Structure prediction request, 138 residues.
Amino acid sequence: MAKKTSAEAPAPAAPAKRTTEEKAQRKADKASQRATKSLTDDRAEKKANQKQTLKSAAKQLQKELDARMSEVVARIRKETKAKLKEVVKDATRRLDVDTERMFEQALHTIVRHYDSIAPGRTTDINLPAPVATEDLEA
Prediction:
């Protein structure tokens, strides 16, 4: 077996020295890649931010809409209640007037009926007929 000597094994080739132009180009390429990655990340981040902002705005608008709807519903209920009270009051007044008129008509009907049955009588008590003065003198 032969010993390996440094003469037999080729020494690894030393990397070739890069020129300043190559270094600058490589540096520019890396910066470009970073910028592209940053832009992509920025766009994704902006998109996520925008989505979150829109969600928050939509949620806020929904809360405002719900509050406004509650106010409108409360106002409508209040107005409806007031109108209903007014309608009931008016109907009650009309019913009272109609009832009073009907009682008056019934009373007049009863009085007329009674007058037609017993004409000339002012009371129910039967009084003896007045005695004629001519009959007494004779």
About this structure: The helical segments are 20-117, 133-137. The chain has a mean pLDDT of 81. Residues 25-117 form one domain.
